[in-house]
Design brief:
Chain lengths: 599, 599
């Protein structure tokens, strides 16, 4: 198929421009130099680089995994070429201030641009986006000197970066991390420890790698309150910015993964020779808060990356279902009639529509959440406050719901391809493998669910949930005025009542001190609230589409598709919330009560 | 972990002996020489060979895919050694008559033995079991001369075999196959065509490969009524059984798969030089019926193989969850307390119990269906008739439900392992990849659903469904008498009403000629009936377990686990049937009405 069709730009523009109206951001001082046109130009540039430089080596980098030669990581050349194109086009500084050479684009536009690279090649895009995440963190917490030495070269595409959190014995549980930092006379720290699962932890793509390392300063409190954040460069940097000697960071091994094979994943040791220099970022013992400052944006990135793999799998399977001819209708067995295109089979059409529901509904949610990040630039205090609260609430849903349902979408894409889908000659099995990491990393989806129910849904007396409910109710009111959507509006309203009642039941149980039992079905709660917010997104898309249809827009097939997908989500998906709500509200305990010896 | 724990023999014995009472089969003339002890001995032998010869090279054969050297397929040596051990122990003739040197075991016991090999190494076991399937077919339809020349050497482990159905342009749609057979003067046929997805299609494991090929005799009717079955040996065989010249069968290519990489999958060409000899099996134009004679057993085999990959993934993740320590309870954040074993976290325990529900419930269904195959040896006509009808009904469910939920189980196993689960250093990612083929091959799960709703559920005025309903009602009556299970009995009774009403709604719509719409939600119907029959299996296991507990059986933890898993399935899974039933009964049409141009 034509590679341009692999990225559904029409849908993206629909969500950003017609539904979310992101050009509204241009009234903020930060984005005053921008316009709908500059947003569109950035997206077009990203699309072109994604298709020209990232997509073509997606399979090749899967087949030619990074490996070590003489202690150095060897990547296929195309990865470096793609990363260079990304940086040269300015995407390494897409969010950064214009004063630092950045594009100073809104987060939502940058996320949409990233999404195209994620669709094209989830492994290669990890190198520059991890670097950029490190730069974003330094922008907030580092000293001006640190910014000059370590952040600016990342923005320029010369340095790369990592986030070093996990250790072999402590993946999700940062309270248990053991890497230590001992103060030295020159103000730096000697870092000692081992870090696991470090993506892009070693390679030769740039002049240096800036590791952001969580460690404990000697004598620090136990647990997460004793964690500090350090800059640990692979090569030391002289005061004039020139490269000094190698720092004591050792590549101890490579992890061999199910997918995302082009993205090197490393086991790193710090201070094996006792001379690993680290530089404290900001205040001591604030490391976790500093990392978590970036976490909402990182987790939106994970959800979006997942759904973008689902999006390209959907496009591949849609194209295949239109071209491949096989079988006949159940009431038409005459073998002399021509075989049907797969898309004509009801079950194949259902698998395509289900993918469309997950993909486009998931994208809508991700961009909606991303827009909340940009609302922090709104001049109105209350807008900033409400947006921040809502973002906190939606983030675990974006991370977990999108990564769960993105995998379901990829699974459906494989099924549509049949036996061919199971082979490495077709792209969809790689989509699944590349995507399978997303429910795991940046906090497993189980942890997201605990974050949602144990913290976000109930914090400040449920303030964030009330904001969400008010916005959903407002959308329902809009939809109620459109005859075709009125029944869907009522259905979503009922689901909202279910959310309220279920949350209150949990709050009551927590109030009685039954914390463990009350949170035992947190996963079902995430499913409940996730389906409700995705349904909300679909209803808003349907309202926009129905208005375009009523106005006689020429692109009627496109808009009909939105309305029909909304109907499908409300018919086949949204009713699932009833069981989820029942399990949570009743604190159904069959798994909770199960004993180890009974397995 | 100790490899013996990887196969849960205790559960297998529970299902076969305590719940199903398979030793009842020994009263049939065919199994009169057998006893519970001989069944157990066969299973122990299979378990030992599976763990000693199949499991150890499971990863190695994944990493060292079959490849071609000088036109020959090269496999790692361990595959040949494992297959030889399998054949030497008599499993190549496990079902065959004692008079032919076979073990003459019941199908259900053979299936349980096969299941152990499937858990240990799904790729390697394909070689001898495909051969055995070919032999089973020849036993029914071939001439004595053909049996002597082609079947007997398979039973002896000297020859291998394949099933050649699919073609590049016709996977699921056999009506469209194009391979031709032209009669020759010597009574043989010249075969010409290409066959795709042929597992074990070429290798050097034995003296010969017997391809069973579907082809059209020149002038045959169009569609499936013009298909005949041919023996096409890789090497011709002389009348005295000695090997003759190479037949005109060419290895045209290897398929490179997501998983099951140790099992070579080939693209074969027949008659490229115009001299491919094929030998008609049985009567002309009966090929599809002949193949389908074996199809119930093959499809039970697919479902069982899938659930056995789920079973070993469950055992791996259970073991890991007991050993790995990580994090603390949500109400216990003190970092000085020791980290918990993963199994102590409510969400991990839920993921383990969910796997247990799918795995053990799926195995119960598979063995129950396998037992119906053996009921064909019952002296009572009505038992044979009812068993055959029920087997027809359950087969698509065994194939599709088990393969769908086995993948969900493997997905949960990966999630429990966290980042490690995503690496190839741990076994669960391979379980998923190996397992992903099962919803596709031997008829996609979409086709199974059409077979179930469009044919099996309604055939003979719903006779098979009535037999099933009567048996479920009988189990409900038994459970109703046990206080702990009475609520579950009522719940299953209500689900049964839902099945009846839903089926009647479909029948009414079919009666009005709305065939396509009535069958459009067949997948949801399979989910509905699948969940009901698995719940039925769980209720029967719970009845047996509750009785053992009441009798003061010392193994109480084991039986408590069965009762608890049953409760979990009824609480979290069975209620899903309500939505499925609603979609089917109302002929929900959002996907059906979706147009190609709207995507």
């Amino acid at each position: 198929m034509e590679s341009r069709q692999l990225i559904d730009r029409r849908h993206l523009d629909f969500v950003l421009d017609e539904v979310l109206g992101v050009d509204d951001l241009c009234r903020y001082a930060r984005f005053a130099e921008h316009s709908r046109e500059t947003f569109g130009a950035a997206l077009s540039l990203a699309q072109q680089i994604a298709l020209d430089k990232f997509l073509p080596h997606n399979r090749k980098s899967d087949l030619n995994e990074p490996h070590m030669v003489d202690g150095k990581v060897v990547l296929i050349a195309e990865i470096g070429e793609a990363v260079a194109a990304f940086c040269e086009a300015g995407f390494s500084a897409v969010l950064a201030d214009a004063g630092r050479g950045g594009m100073q684009l809104p987060f939502v536009v940058a996320a949409a641009a990233d999404g195209m690279f994620c669709s094209a090649n989830a492994a290669t895009i990890a190198y520059p986006t991890l670097a950029r995440a490190a730069a974003n963190l330094l922008e907030v917490y580092a000293s001006e000197e640190q910014k000059r030495l370590y952040m600016q070269p990342i923005l320029e595409g010369r340095y790369f970066g990592t986030m070093c959190l996990s250790e072999p014995q402590a993946g999700s549980s940062l309270a248990d991390l053991k890497t230590t930092a001992s103060p030295r006379d020159d103000g730096s720290y000697a870092i000692s420890g081992a870090k696991m699962w470090i993506s892009a932890g070693d390679h030769e793509l740039g002049e240096n790698i800036v590791h952001l390392v969580l460690a404990r300063i000697e004598g620090a409190p136990a647990g997460v309150r004793g964690i500090s954040l350090f800059i640990v460069p692979r090569w030391r940097v002289n005061a004039d910015g020139s490269r000094g000697a190698r720092n004591d960071v050792t590549l101890a091994g490579l992890n061999h993964k199910m997918g995302q094979r082009g993205s090197v994943n490393t086991f790193l040791k710090f201070g094996e020779s006792g001379d690993c220099a680290g530089y404290l970022v900001g205040t001591a013992h604030q490391g976790l808060a500093q990392m978590f400052h970036m976490m909402n944006e990182e987790r939106i990135g994970v959800g979006l990356s997942a759904i973008q793999q689902a999006a390209i799998g959907y496009q591949y399977s849609l194209d295949y279902a239109r071209e491949r001819r096989q079988g006949r209708h159940p009431d038409q067995k005459d073998p002399s009639t021509p075989a049907l295109a797969l898309i004509e089979h009801a079950d194949v059409r259902r698998m395509l529509l289900q993918q469309k529901c997950y993909v486009e509904g998931g994208q809508m949610l991700a961009y909606d959440a991303a827009l909340l990040v940009d609302r922090q630039h709104d001049p109105d205090d209350s807008v900033r406050r409400d947006s921040a609260a809502l973002l906190e609430l939606l983030t675990p849903i974006v991370k977990a719901w999108l990564s769960d349902y993105a995998l379901r979408a990829n699974d459906l894409a494989i099924q549509i391809f049949g036996g061919y889908g199971y082979t490495r000659d077709y792209p969809v099995e790689q989509c699944y493998r590349d995507n399978r990491i997303n429910p795991i990393h940046e906090g497993t989806n189980g942890i997201q669910a605990l974050d949602l129910l144990g913290r976000k849904a109930l914090m400040h007396d449920g303030a964030a949930l009330k904001i969400l409910a008010a916005r959903i109710a407002a959308s329902c009111a809009e939809a109620a005025a459109i005859a075709e959507l009125a029944p869907l509006s009522r259905q979503l309203g009922q689901a909202l009542v279910l959310v309220r009642d279920t949350t209150q039941a949990v709050a009551a149980r927590l109030g009685q001190g039954e914390v463990r039992l009350a949170l035992a079905n947190a996963g079902h709660y995430l499913h409940l609230l996730g389906h409700v917010v995705v349904a909300w997104g679909w209803l808003r898309m349907a309202v926009t589409a129905q208005r375009a249809l009523a106005a006689g827009n020429a692109d009627s097939a496109f808009y009909q598709g939105k309305v029909q997908a909304c109907r499908h989500f409300f018919a086949a998906e949204l009713p699932q919330v009833e069981l989820a709500a029942k399990l949570v509200a009743s604190a159904e305990a069959s798994a909770y009560d199960m004993r180890d010896s009974w397995f």
